């Protein structure tokens, strides 16, 4: 890319020229969030993808999110700035192994967390996100047997909240499993007024001490509405940009990880850059493509989720 190019202005121009919309997840770099038409959590992003009238969706997020957009809007061109932007949680549940797992529980309904491949969604009855998982489980009859995957931490959280006995797949997110209980406790002593907020992908012992547990959108809303002036935040660090923008005078502290060499960045989310976003708009590549048969089978469980979440 020509270093004299004003990338932000060029992205805006290309967006108009190609009737494209940029959907960005809260875990993207601040400069990508600032250029997006919509920033949101997984549920908000899929609702936007389902209703947009743009011809092109540029998904500033990871592969499973762009796939979900393609499933909901199969006639549209869906671009992902870096096709290698995957997800450790999605990788922790290979569809062929899950299919075998599911065979052991023939009378169970399958709820899958949206952080999984399109093939896995095609094996599911209902999809959910972290903002509606409890609501979706509660919408089912009390005696309904349920398999929940791939995130065991979210599954365990839903199990506790609903009192339902879910059969869990043993998957997890690499970013949400790094937090140190001891270091968080030390930080809370240092900032006794601070609220500790956590994403339900975090481990049980971390969630046990949280003042609030919710999706990225839920956490953001909590920091806006709660009168506290300090927050310790246990999720990917990208969300701090919107928290700080919404409440410039409040203090947001990323929850400390166990390992001093670790950080709260998702290496998959952070593969996307402004330069790659510009290139993908300019060239119309790389595009997310899916087998029409998979789209057909994966659409119903996602649409069920959207109906329940309306
Ligand atoms: P939400 O934004 O839906 O809370 O999801 C978090 C996440 O880990 C996405 O990869
Ligand atoms: Fe996947 Fe975790 Fe990254 Fe979200 S933060 S994309 S769940 S690895």
From TrEMBL:
Enzyme class: transferase
PANTHER family in UniProt: QUINOLINATE SYNTHASE, CHLOROPLASTIC, QUINOLINATE SYNTHETASE A
Pathway: Cofactor biosynthesis; NAD(+) biosynthesis; quinolinate from iminoaspartate: step 1/1
MF (Gene Ontology): 4 iron, 4 sulfur cluster binding; metal ion binding; quinolinate synthetase A activity
Residues annotated for iminosuccinate binding in this entry: 25, 42, 113-115, 130, 199-201, 216
Top-level division of the source organism's lineage: Bacteria
UniProt keyword terms in alphabetical order: 4Fe-4S, Cytoplasm, Iron, Iron-sulfur, Metal-binding, Pyridine nucleotide biosynthesis, Transferase
Signal peptide location: none
Gene: nadA
Catalytic reactions on record: iminosuccinate + dihydroxyacetone phosphate = quinolinate + phosphate + 2 H2O + H(+)
Protein family according to the UniProt entry: Belongs to the quinolinate synthase family. Type 2 subfamily.
Entry's cofactor comment: Binds 1 [4Fe-4S] cluster per subunit.
Cofactor: [4Fe-4S] cluster
EC number(s) given by UniProt: 2.5.1.72
Location within or outside the cell: Cytoplasm
HAMAP family, alphabetized: NadA_type2
Protein name, as recorded: Quinolinate synthase
GO biological process terms held by the UniProt record: 'de novo' NAD+ biosynthetic process from L-aspartate
Binding positions for [4Fe-4S] cluster per the UniProt entry: 87, 173, 266
Keyword Iron annotated: yes
Function description: Catalyzes the condensation of iminoaspartate with dihydroxyacetone phosphate to form quinolinate.
Pfam families attached to this UniProt entry: NadA
One GO cellular component term noted in the UniProt record for this chain: cytosol
